[in-house]
Structures are given as C-alpha cells and as structure tokens.
Amino acid sequence: MIANKELAFQNVEKEKRAEQLMIANKELAFQNKEKKKRAAELIDSNKEVDELEKRVKERTEDLESFTYSVSHDLRTPLRAINGYANMLEEDYSGVLDSEGKRVLGEVRINAKKMGILIDDLLTFSRLGRKGISNSKVDVNELVKTVLLEINESTAHHAEIKYENLLPTIADYNLLKHVITNLLSNAIKYSSKKDKPFIEIKSERKKGVNIYSISDNGVGFDMKYVNKLFGVFQRLHSNEEFSGTGVGLAIVERIIHKHNGKVWAKGKEGQGATFYFSLPDVDKKTEKKQ
Amino acid sequence: MENNTVEILLIEDNMNDAELAIRAFRKGNINNNLIHLKNGAEALEFLFATGKFEGRDTSKKPKVILLDLKMPKVDGLEVLAKIKASDLTKSIPVVVLTSSSEHPDIEHAYSLGANSYIVKPVEFDEFVKVVTELGFYWLLKNHPSL
Q1: Keyword Transit peptide: yes or no (chain B) (predicted)?
Q2: Is B54 at the interface with chain A, CB within 8 A?
Q3: What dotted CATH number matches A1-130?
Q4: What is the predicted ipTM?
C-alpha cells in the first residue's frame, strides 16, 4: 500500500515536472522568437546605417571630385593669363612706359598668387581622397630637415629652439607637410618682431604625444580661434602677411586623418601656440608585445 | 608640307595652350617643322591620310606627337588608342599633355602605350623649360624606329 502510494505520488510529481518543462519550453520558444525578431531588427538598422554611410561617402566623393575638377580646370585660363602677360613683357617692354610695366607686373604677380591658391586647393582635396601610410617617424630629425629646407627658401632671423622631440607613428610626408606649414607660419607671423623666438616641444599625455609650436609673433584674438582652421579663412590681410588661407585647413585635415587633434592658443600681439596630438610610439609597441 | 616632313605634331584644342607651346618650342630653339591640329578627329585624318589629308605620304612620320588629353568629340585617349593600335603609327613616340600630374587619365594613357607625359605648368618659364627638355629628348637623343 505504502509502495503504491509512493508510486502514485511519484507519478504526480512526474506530471508536475513535465508540465513545468512544457511551460519552460514554451517560454524558451517565445524567447527564441523574440531573439530572432531582435536580430532581424538589428540587421535592418545595420542596413540603414550602411546605406547612410554609403550615401555620406558618395556625397563626400562628389564634393571632392568637384573641388578637384574646378581647381584643375582653373589652371587652364590661368596658364593663358600668365603666358600672355609674359609675352607682353618679353616682346613689348620697349613700348611700355614704367606705369605700363608696373600694371603688367601686377597682372603677373596675381596670376602667380592664383596658381599657388589652386595648388593649395588641389593639395587639400587630394588629402581627402588619399589614404595614409604609417611608419615610425623621428620627429626631431624631421624638424631638422624641415628647418634646413625653410632656411634655404626663406630669409628669416628667428631663433628656433627644439630638442629630443618624441617619435611618433605617422605618414612621413604628411607630417612633414604639417610641420613645414606650422613652422613657416610661426616664422611668418613673428617676422616683424625684433627678436622672433620659436619653440617646438613635445610631451606624453594620456597615451598620446602632444606637439606644440609657439612663437612670440602677432598672435590672434581667441574669439576668432574657430576660424583658424577653416578653408580660405584668414585673420590678416594679404598686405600684412601673405597667404592663401588653406594652410591650416590642410594641417587639420592631415592630423584628423591620423586620428589626432589640433588646436591653438593665442593672444593678440603676444604670440601663438599651435598644438597637435599623434600616437605615442612606446605605447603602441608595448601593446604589441 | 609636301616637301617638309612634319617633325612635331601638336594635337591641342585650346588655342592659347597651343600658342604657348609653339612659342615655348621657339624659345627653346626647337625649330623643327611643327603642325598644329585642333582636335582629335583632325589628328586621325592627318595620321591615317584620310579626309582633308587624303593622299598625304604616310611613310613620313612625325618624330614626336604631343597630345592633349581633354578634347571634345574624339578625345586624346581615343586618338592614342588608335595610334598605338595601328602598325603604321605605333612606333611614333606620343607625349601626353595634361593639366595636372594627378589626372586619373595619366595611368590610362600609359596603359594605352603613351611614351611619357608632361604637366602643362602655370608658369610660362617653367613651360619653356619642360618643352625644351622634351624636344631635346625626343627630337635629338631618341633614335626613332623606322
């Protein structure tokens, strides 16, 4: 009797468990369905993101190729202006009086300026299209090379100080472009001081290298700081300091391509400092090991 | 033209660029006989002695062809392809003229068999230099295959 009772009890228990299992199975099936639904939703939204990314990429490419072809096509008439002005100078200088020669000179100077502008724009648009090839760069050596080149092409009397600059990982030619640009700017905007002084420094901070180039030149008002890196944005007239207004836009683009940041601090009449951040070499190699 | 063999064939639709190129040749003391053709169609007629050049002695080949890439109707690449595809003309060196060193057509031109290319510089003095070097190389140093 007892055994029978025991069996009956076990049966009840079994049925109970079976019921529980069924419920759990149903629950699982439901969860599975939900999961599949979510997965499908995720795929859908991923597709949307992909689509958007594709469209942004296409638009950017359109814009790049537009900039490229415009600046490219501008060269043709410019070549003619320059060439004919040159012919006039060579063949008719005998019949031109001094004022005529001066006017012709202005034509040629401006044609040349426009040529530089177009080249700068082409560089800017090229940077948007081309990838970067990274390698370890000895920044101290690079600054030395850049200074030699600048000294060859530009007469200046600035004292330039730098030592033991940290190495980094970057595209050598692009970084050279950045340093050439920032150093040329520092020299240009401090050229009217009695004792122009430029200092290049580097420091490790929060896993990145921060490089700075300071000068004691004309500086700028911090309220215009957001205009510094815009294309064709200038804080000085061409008479004060010559330039096309593309240089710092190129610098920013290059540094952004390296996932770095670029910023500036300045005070009117008291100089400016330009900063940019690039990867810390040691940190990268540590990670690899 | 019957008596003088054309040595430089300039194919350029932009009259200003053509005038500057011709002047650059003269300035560089390259006084070889030059003919300027104003578009791709005309160039093909000249090279293959058809249309208004029918009857031209095609055995007289130019020493070098300067070819602008961007031309209406028959563009430079098309002309280049035809030059390099024909036994009659494929041995003539073709120097491609372009407005910028980054032009995507440059690679295309090389793949079609262009011999070199020059970027038309904005500065005229620079242009003279480039054209003179080019003329010196293709007209004096290079021995054309016969």
Answers
A1: no
A2: no
A3: 1.10.287.130
A4: 0.74
